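CATEGORY: protein folding

GOAL: derive C-alpha cells
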Amino acid sequence: MSDTWKNLEGQKDEIVGKVKEVFGKATDDAETQAKGIAQQVEGEAKQAVASGRGHVDEIRENYKDRADSAVEDVKRQVAETRESVHTSADENLKEAIDEGKQLKEEAARKAEELRQNAIAEGEEQREKAREKSTKAYEEADEIEARVNQSIDEAAESRQESEKEDNNTL
C-alpha cells in the first residue's frame, strides 16, 4: 500500500473518529466518545507513518490528554446524575409520605363520618322502634278494651239468658 493511500486511510480514520467523539459527547455515551478518540489517534498515527513525520508519541500524548479529559467529563456526569437520582428519590419519598398522611387523614374523616351516620341511623331506628312499640301498646289497649267489652257483653248476655231461663221455669 502506498504512503498516499495510508495517509488517506489515516485521514478517514481521523474524521470518522472525530464524528464518533462528538456523537458520544452529545449523547453522553462515554464508550462511543472513547472509541472515537482512539480511532482519531490511529488515523493520526497512520498519517504520521505515511508522511514520515514520526510524531506518533506526540500525537498519542495529545489524544491521551483528550481521552483523560473525556473520562473526567464522564465521571462528573455520572456523579451529577447520581446526585440528581438521590435528590429525586428523596423528593419522591417525601411526596409519598405526604400523600400517605393525607390518605390516612381522609380515611379517618370518612370513618368518623360513617360512625356518625351509624349513630344517627341507630337513633332513627330507635325512634322508629319506640313509635312502633307505642302504637303496638295502643293497639293492645284497644284490643284489651274490645275484649273486655266483649266479655262484659257476653256476661250480660249470659245473665240475661239466665234470667230468662229462671223466668221461664
User: Anything to note?
Assistant: The two ends are 164 Å apart (CA to CA).
